[in-house]
Amino acid sequence: MSTTHILTFPALLMLLYIPSSDPVTVTTSKAKVEVHENTNAVLSCEFRTEKETNPRVEWKKRGKEVSYVYFDGDFTGAFNSRASIDGATMTLRGVTQKDSGVYHCEVTARQDKIKLGEVTVTLIVLVPPHAPSCEVPETVTKGFSAELHCKDKLSVPAATYSWYKDNKPLNIGKPADINYTLDPKTGTLKFKMVSKSDEGQYRCEASNGVGAPKSCAGRVMKITEYELNMTIVIALEVGACLLFLSCCVSICLCCRRCRKRKGETIQSRTKTSCNPPTDPRRYKHTQSFVL
User: Fold this and answer.
1) Which one is the CATH code of 133-224: 2.60.40.10, 3.40.47.10, 3.40.190.10, 2.60.120.380?
2) Is the pTM value of this prediction over 0.70?
3) Which of 92, 203, 279, 284 has an alpha carbon within 20 to 30 A of 272's alpha carbon?
């Protein structure tokens, strides 16, 4: 037993004094960063190298094309005036929706066995609801269908929608109790058959949990009864008369053509009966009789 301890103890001492040979590693404490619009965003990037004491740090943003954010010790473009870096962790000040995207932190250690390490951080800039655009028909005929539309294209995450009639929320109840359908994701309100009771002021509200809900201005939808316009009635009557006259003229022309063809056929038959066909043998017999 003692021999075993004597042999292993020096080995343990050697292991304790062996320097670390880990290659360059890059990590982040938060791979997904969500911040409100016009606030600061901290994109974490931490690294550890094997031998390199002065590694090169770069930040890139991936979109339709990859663009540099931090390169060769300086920030590029608009980031130059509103960004800072501590080690490899980058801070963006006053972020907007344009800053949302996927960022890459790259660390290059030339003296290490593995010379390049990288990590990805996704930045999501939350945008509160804006006043949505609403489409409400001014008039709808009773018994016909109608559609009302609502949309907010700027909010992040995407907004959900609710409709109000005369400042009272429209709830989705049993199909037998209501004559409309409401899609909270698209903001579309559909009426199968409107009635006089559907007349009123409608407005839409957009919400996404980031900021206060926003509404569009209320618009009135009127329901009208189906009434025949005298101008339309007169136009329909004139059109019917013209169609009738056109049919009569067509029939008369057809009758005249039929009579004409019939007369030509009878005349042709009469001429044929009055002028029998000439027979050369008959004339030959007559000549021999005279002689």
Assistant:
1) 2.60.40.10
2) no
3) 284
